[in-house]
Design brief:
This protein is of the alpha/beta class. It has 13 helices and 13 strands. The chain has helices at residues 2-50, 59-64, 91-100, 136-141, 155-162, 177-188, 191-212, 241-247, 254-258, 267-273, 293-299, 307-310, 328-342; strands spanning 66-71, 74-79, 85-87, 106-109, 126-130, 133-134, 146-150, 167-170, 221-227, 230-233, 263-265, 277-282, 314-316. The strands form four sheets. Strands 11-10-9-12-13 form a five-stranded mixed beta sheet. 31% of the residues are buried.
């Protein structure tokens, strides 16, 4: 009886020892899992910061992920997936969207409607107001990931837009066209398309320069725009001027060189300038209260004496009259149209 008691006691001790060992193993596994979970949790912010979204990332993590974009020497923090883009004030961005086939959720209208040439990219867009009159309430309702505005906006407009979403002010300087195009490409992952468009323009430019040679060496070529019934001249870096004077290498007229911004000129000043070749841009939307401004200019007896008019070298609207002139879309279109006229 005494021997059986001791045997039973030993069995109980053995079982207790095994249980203790099993418990330790289980605790160790739990501890390792916790450690692994801690590493993953610690790694998550880094992954978020680098904007590397793995398939297993939660929707919440994806929504909060951001990335940094550099544009014109400034850095901007934007959502990793910038799918909801609003374009306001920046016609440059509208034209770049056309080149890259980007469909903004909000875009600029003229007279309450999207211009026909933007039909391909405004199928999913709502009007966020006219070019110089953004509708803050509508933009807010659209919940944009990024707002592309213009460098022409006044500080009070900029402050309002920044309260809604990250704002990037797109340059209106024509010579920044590649940076503008690459900005939208980076936001939307269409870098290849942007590089193809830039390469196409450079190829066309090479052909144009070979075709024209020194033909225009002594010619004064000027591009003007009629707005609100007035004739405007632009600096060498604005409108289509970089194409004429920088890319094609034509001589910069003194009047263009002297212009500090878009400046209205009189009939007498235009007559004194006396261009040999004149490109004129006139849009009815920009001359609602001066519908006959173009006709009046062309029929003005003073203007009819300038070389471009006398020699039938005045060309009106060789590209869409609302085209900005400097962005990629305008640039490609204007180069082709202008060279055709310049080579006559």
């Amino acid at each position: 009886m005494k021997r059986s008691f001791w045997i039973a006691g030993l069995v109980v001790l053995f079982v207790l020892a095994l249980t203790a060992c099993g418990g330790n193993g289980s605790n160790n596994q739990t501890g390792n899992s916790a450690a692994a979970g801690g590493s993953a949790a610690n790694a998550a912010p880094s992954a978020t910061a680098e904007v590397t979204l793995e398939p297993s990332s939660s929707p919440a993590a994806a929504e909060s992920a951001t990335r940094t974009i550099e544009y014109m020497g400034e850095q901007y923090t934007v959502p990793a997936n910038a799918e909801r883009i609003v374009i306001t004030g920046a016609m440059e961005a509208m034209e770049d969207a056309l080149v890259l086939d980007v469909h903004p959720v909000g875009a600029i209208t003229f007279g309450g409607a999207f211009p026909e040439r933007f039909a391909a990219i405004t199928d999913k867009a709502e009007s966020i107001g006219e070019k110089t009159e953004p509708n803050f309430e509508t933009i807010l309702k659209l919940k944009p990931d990024v707002i592309l505005g213009t460098t022409k906006f006044k500080p009070e407009v900029v402050e309002q837009l920044k309260k809604i979403a990250p704002l990037i002010q797109v340059s209106h300087i024509a010579s920044n066209w590649e940076a503008n195009l690459n900005l939208l490409a980076e936001l939307t992952g269409k870098q290849d398309k942007a590089q193809a468009a830039i390469a196409e323009y450079q190829a066309d430019l090479g052909k144009a320069k070979a075709l024209l040679g020194d033909k225009l060496k002594d010619k004064k070529v000027v591009a003007l725009r009629i707005r609100a019934g007035q004739v405007f001249i632009f600096p060498a870096a604005v409108f289509v001027n970089p194409i004429l004077y920088n890319d094609l290498g034509l001589a910069v007229p003194a009047e263009v060189e002297a212009a500090k911004a878009q400046e209205a000129i009189s009939v007498e000043q235009l007559a004194a300038m006396n261009p040999d070749i004149l490109f004129l841009q006139f849009a009815a939307d920009e001359n609602a209260e001066a519908a006959t401004a173009l006709e009046d200019l062309q029929n003005n007896p003073i203007i009819r004496k300038i070389n471009a008019m006398k020699n039938d070298k005045t060309f009106v609207n060789v590209i869409d009259p609302l085209a900005e002139g400097g962005p990629a879309w305008s640039r490609v279109q204007f180069l082709k149209a202008a060279v055709e006229q310049l080579n006559k």
